[in-house]
Amino acid sequence: YELRAGTNVVDKVLEHLFRALIAELNSPSAPSVRESLVRSFVLALGTRQGTPAQENSSKDGHSATQLNRLLSWLKENMETRITVGAMASRVGLSVAHFSREFKRATGVTPWEYVMEVRLQRAAQLLKCGESVCSTAMQSGFFDQAHLSRLFKQRFGMSPSAYARQQIAASTAGLSFPPLQRSLSVPARDGS
Q1: Burial of 23 by CB count in 10 Å (0-12 exposed, 13-18 middle, 19+ buried)?
Q2: 49, 8 contact by CB (below 8 A)
């Protein structure tokens, strides 16, 4: 349950439970009695003054909506320092659980996804005429060498060669297919 905002709540049942709880805290009764009163009070508070909380996750660990919001956030914040821990905390999961569920949902690890999105952004910026150094910074890479190493590994050519190829193609009126790999979120059954 999530409590509704507001003050001046008058609820005789809650008041009675709260007074009993205070009395028990001041008496030498068994811990199980105190625990029972605390549980009763919290349950009554939630049911009487709260609303059912929205489900935070699916049985897989996170919902498709949470994942889509996270992926949008990643694309908007590529140039910043992103960690798997920060991604996990955005969806309220531990790093290990998040990593497992992310891979289950997308087919790649969270870090592979981040690198792929950064490389796609880099290719896009290079195609628009940005320098390799500027592209590295705008895509979230540590430096130009980091971008160059991963770009060549992923696309089979250096960022500079790709930029030259794009410039030559545009002057000749040619168009190369985009360097792309599908990284979409698959639809879940029953969602």
Answers
A1: exposed
A2: no
**pLDDT confidence tier of residue 184, bands split at 50, 70 and 90:** very low
Q: Are strands 50-51 and 2-3 parallel, antiparallel or unpaired?
A: antiparallel
Please name which of 129, 181, 132 lies closest in space to residue 155, comparing C-alpha atoms: 181
Beta carbons of 125 and 135 less than 8 angstroms apart: yes
* Cα–Cα distance, 36 to 39 (Å, whole number): 5
Instruction: Please give the C-alpha separations between residue 46 and each of 3, 4, 8, 13, 117, in angstroms, as whole numbers.
Output: 6, 9, 16, 12, 42
Average pLDDT, integer, range 162-171:
83
One-letter amino acid of 75: K
pLDDT the model gives residue 175: 58
Q: Using the structure block, give the residue that is written with the tokens 């994942």.
A: 67
Asked if pLDDT for residue 55 goes beyond 70, the answer is no
**Which residue from 78, 108, 123, 98 is spatially nearest to 185, judged by alpha carbons?**
108
Residues 6+ apart with CB under 8 A from 13: 44, 48
Burial class (CB in 10 A: 0-12, 13-18, 19+), 55: exposed
Q: Calculate the average pLDDT of the chain.
A: 79
